[in-house]
Design a protein that fits this description.
single chain; 462 residues; Amidase signature (AS) enzymes; eleven-stranded mixed beta sheet; 14 helices; 35% helix; globular
């Protein structure tokens, strides 16, 4: 099966005139129209005309941008001027007068946003089983969820409906669906990509980032969307640096125990062990680390819940029935978190980072599975895994949510299919501002075929 073209390849062809942006967008819009994944909640009616304008500009001799003609799937809590932001809600409708900073940067690079993607309601969940819009389905098995909360963006990229997805990640909402759909997902350092024009879940934890089929494409997107925005008080002045060339030989990869030992399915455990073995064969040193502080759930719940409650409290008290049952249940818990619990959670975050930073004296990155399971059956919340009865939310977030509380970046990488029905996923975690290093390691692992994107087997029918 021929791999679909990368964003870089499409942009180069459009810039050179070897391909028409109009043809690229027409082809992708056709796939969206035929798809049964429920990945999109709205298709952008201006996408084709924007693509045709790019072709006209190129024909007139203008040099187009680095994402020329590349189809983008945008999570439906990120504002796009002239479009309606719903956040996957029954009642929230914002007619955006101005685009989010990340959208402005994508369009300045001549990307084409083809539509708005489905998500878990208000991004407050890990499955994208949305009570109001219906579930986003995994392209690997449409009886299972795509993961969340950025499920639509991940499903669209995995199934070839878009080339790049833009999502948000507060506790794993880019990495979880990337893992369940078999694609690359980058959670950036908090403050790396501006949040201006993005509806918040928990602003001190929220991040925006790319979902792609290759590490190279994730790096290309980051060159466009990273950077300071004076309109965002969380935004950093630190400049983006190009992807680092990494030699796997001599790379020190840490396994944080007991965190890395948490329950996973047999397929996830086997794929993770295989990836570590292949890293060792490539010359990397796998180092066992005892970091008891990095042991979920810790105070992840009050850490995010207090901030989420501050946003939703008034709406929820006045109209609780306007929220889907699962989100209403979480908000009912969140509004009971008090200031003292939140302050304890903030202190816990600092303690976490101190412990994790100390561990990096011995290694360059940490590695865990991205998720405990890669199959989440629709409508099922309690699952039995390795003899343990566990909530799906725990299995999906136990390796991701702590990273947001650290404020660090993490990269979810798809592992080869092998004998399993669908790919598993490995997570690399590095210190603040180390995205280029993580991407460099990911690129080296792609080159060595330790990680790779696999097209869903029924992709033509998705």
């Amino acid at each position: 099966m021929t791999s679909p073209p990368t964003a870089r390849a499409i942009a180069e062809q459009v810039r050179s005139g070897a391909a028409s942006a109009g043809d690229v967008i027409t082809a992708h819009l056709g796939r969206v129209a035929e798809s049964r994944l429920n990945a999109f909640v709205a298709v952008d009616e201006n996408a084709l005309s924007r693509a045709q304008q790019l072709d006209e500009r190129r024909a007139a001799g203008e040099t187009l941008g680095p994402l020329a003609g590349v189809p983008i799937a945008l999570k439906d809590l990120i504002d796009h001027a002239g479009r309606v932001t719903t956040c996957g809600s029954s009642f929230y409708r914002k007619h955006a007068g101005e685009s989010a900073t990340v959208v402005k940067r994508l369009e300045a690079a001549d990307a084409v946003i083809i539509g708005r993607t489905g998500l878990h309601e208000f991004a407050y969940g890990f499955t994208s089983e949305n009570h109001w819009f219906g579930p986003v389905l995994s392209p690997w098995d449409m009886e299972t969820a795509a993961g969340g909360s950025s499920g639509g963006s991940a499903a669209a990229v995995a199934a070839g409906l878009a080339v790049i997805g833009i999502g948000t990640d507060t506790g794993g909402s880019i990495r979880v669906p990337a893992a369940l759909c078999g694609v690359v997902g980058l959670k950036v350092t908090h403050g790396r990509v501006p949040l201006t024009g993005v509806f918040p879940l928990a602003a001190s934890l929220d991040t925006v980032g790319p979902i792609t089929r290759s590490v190279e494409d994730a790096s290309l997107v980051m060159q466009v969307i990273a950077g300071h925005d004076p309109a965002d008080s969380w935004s950093t002045q630190r400049p983006w640096t190009s992807i680092s060339n990494i030699d796997l030989k001599g790379l020190r990869v840490g396994l944080p125990h007991p965190w890395v030992d948490h329950v996973t399915s047999a397929d996830v455990a086997r794929a993770f062990r295989t990836a570590l073995s292949q890293l060792a064969d490539a010359g990397a040193e796998i180092v066992d680390l005892d970091i008891p502080e990095l042991d979920p759930p810790g105070l992840t719940l009050p850490s995010a819940a207090f901030e989420a409650a501050a946003i939703h409290r008034e709406w929820f008290v006045e109209q609780p029935g306007s929220y889907g049952p699962d989100v209403a249940k979480r908000l009912a818990t969140a509004i009971r978190v008090d200031t003292n619990q939140y302050l304890d959670a903030l202190a816990w975050r600092a303690h976490l980072e101190h412990a994790a930073t100390a561990a990096l004296d011995r290694v360059q990155v940490l590695a865990t599975p991205t998720v405990g399971i890669v199959e989440k059956p629709l409508g099922t919340d309690e699952l039995t895994v390795d003899g343990h009865s566990m909530h799906a939310r725990t299995l999906l977030s136990q390796f991701t949510a702590l990273v947001n509380n650290l404020g660090w970046p993490a990269l979810a990488l798809p592992l080869p299919l092998e004998a399993a029905k669908r790919p598993s996923s490995l997570q690399l975690i590095g210190p603040r501002w180390s995205e280029s290093t993580l991407l460099g390691i990911g690129a080296a692992m792609e080159k060595s075929q330790i990680v790779e994107y696999t097209q869903p087997t029924s992709r033509v029918d998705l």
